[in-house]
What we know:
- By secondary structure, the chain is of the alpha/beta class.
- The protein has 10 helices and 13 strands.
- The strands form 3 sheets. A 5-stranded mixed beta sheet has the order 2-1-3-10-4, with helices on both faces.
- α8 runs parallel beside α9.
- The radius of gyration is 19 Å and the shape is globular.
Amino acid sequence: MLRLGTRGSALARAQAALVHDGLVRRHPGLRVETVHIRTTGDRGARAPQGPGGRKGLFVKEIEEALLAGEIDVGVHSMKDLPARLPAGLVVGAVPARAAAHDVLIGAGGLRELPSGARVGTASVRRRAQLLARRRDVVVTPLRGNVDTRLRRWREGAVDALILAAAGLERLGIAEPAALALAPEEFLPPVGQGALALECRADAPATRALLAAVEDPAAATAVAAERAFLLAIGGDCNTPLAAHATVADGQVALRALVTDREGQHWLEDADSAPAAEAEALGRALAERLLAAGARGILEG
């Protein structure tokens, strides 16, 4: 029996179902149970200040259940996972990644947004990148699950939305008004579209089972992005972004740090052999820090 722990939202359940099916397909006869855990973030708690921020609110209780032996694997959206994991826990596998990009709903592109348009998002990263390109729009805080945000847009609470393409894909929502924002135009956050299968470091049998659903390209890209996140010293309260791709044995990484208003912007990109993904992430962070990223992070 392998016990998967996940949040109870529709998206979390869909993601856990993907992992369940992948494990059963790779290990015929394996019994896999899904345990739904209500997290602090699901209860609507406000984000604390400091490292981890709101991210930790969506994983804390799942990690506690892992450490207590109540579950064997925590299934997380990678972008919700803080840069530093609790002692005794590791990311046991990264399955195949969904689309990492964002989508704009309600306009034919960022340039086509009318002046004064209300764009719904609670993400500081999306806010900063949007304002950097369109100082004349109004960023309207909008939280809730995907269905809630789409409903609020249809009701006219906002004129447009920015959402993760992966969330729509995994929920099976084909929104005709969704326009893909290419990563070159609108850089995604660390880990968007990827899943993290977290487990105890001292559970070799569990890690062996998870290894069967690991996607090497996704794991390499995420390793570069998370190494950047850890080295830059940011969290989800900081409008930073990083996106890596893997092809022909090379990993390419692009990263940025801005202030919340999108007025101060530092960006860099580089590539390296896939085996050096983490070193690439650290190197990009060091270059941005040398260029003044620390002042933006602490500003």
